[in-house]
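Postdoc handover notes: sequence design on the structure in folder B. Input tokens:
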């Protein structure tokens, strides 16, 4: 393989990496927003369930560290963490593996 082809391949792979990174950043941001929305909804549910109002939050501002820790422990016990799905191999991962295998074949 000559140097020009290698440079072209490197440029192409760097472009693919940049696109992949951008897509993953968007997915991560979307998942974080979804997580925050779920936590907010669960917090509202907890407040309705236990008939708490915003005045309680103002009172918590003057609470001791121990009292705040008790409240945090209670909230954390009430919030349900979504189950983490096992990561599936995406088509991008498959393409990357194929590219690596192809590069190994070219080197041999």
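Designed sequence:
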């Amino acid at each position: 393989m000559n140097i020009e082809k290698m440079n072209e391949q490197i440029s192409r792979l760097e472009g693919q990496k940049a696109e992949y990174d951008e897509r993953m950043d968007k997915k991560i941001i979307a998942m974080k927003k979804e997580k925050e929305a779920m936590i907010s909804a669960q917090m509202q549910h907890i407040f309705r369930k236990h008939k708490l109002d915003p005045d309680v939050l103002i009172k918590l501002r003057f609470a001791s560290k121990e009292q705040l820790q008790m409240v945090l422990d209670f909230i954390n016990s009430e919030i349900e963490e979504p189950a983490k799905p096992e990561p599936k191999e995406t088509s991008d991962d498959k393409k990357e593996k194929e590219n690596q295998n192809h590069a190994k074949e070219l080197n041999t």
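Context for whoever picks this up: Residues 5 and 11 are 10 Å apart (CA to CA). Don't rerun without checking with the PI first.
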